[in-house]
Amino acid sequence: MESVRELLLDEMKDLYDAEKQLVKALPKVVKASSNADLRQAFENHLEETRGHVSRLERAFEMMGEKAKSKPCAAMKGLVEEAGEATEGDMDESLTDSAIICAAQKVEHYEIAGYGTLAAWAKSLGLDDVAGLLEETLEEEKAADKKLSEVADGILVEAASMEGGSQEDEEEEEATVESPRKKAASKGSNGQSSRHRAG
Prior knowledge:
The N and C termini lie far apart (about 95 Å). By secondary structure, the chain is an all-alpha fold. It has a single domain (about 5-155), classed as Ferritin, CATH 1.20.1260. It has helices spanning about 5-30, 35-60, 75-85, 90-125, 125-195. The chain is elongated. Helix 1 runs parallel beside helix 3 and helix 1 runs antiparallel to helix 4.
């Protein structure tokens, strides 16, 4: 790379590939989500992601370049992580929480990318290109915020279920231990009566 323009174009190619990977991956994530609000958030973001692809194509065009992508290894890894979260044998609320974690890693990657690209475009006086990139940046931030809001409700649900199972375990332990406690109690009573007798 010998100029900011070249850096900008190179990173735009990276994000162009990343967004196209997400367009393919998000329908699977929608299907794997059991929480209705989470499904809706992913469905909405899928539509936005298609728009992100179009915006990048317009940005390339504004720069007199053909829209090209280069393989984004980071997004490939993040998408694989999301896939692992959907395939786990966990309770629904735990699966949804794992999916949100994977999705927010994606959002933070994109927020970092679009923020930097917008700054580079501005430094080159490409205000129209910067405007497009900032528009996408704001949508990525909003998607991340929405995921955090949905996550709060899911975590409350997961914690209440965990609390319930912990209470069940404690009840089981009490049932198992109570005959022992009774025996110990009788033993101590007997011992104390022998002491009294002596």
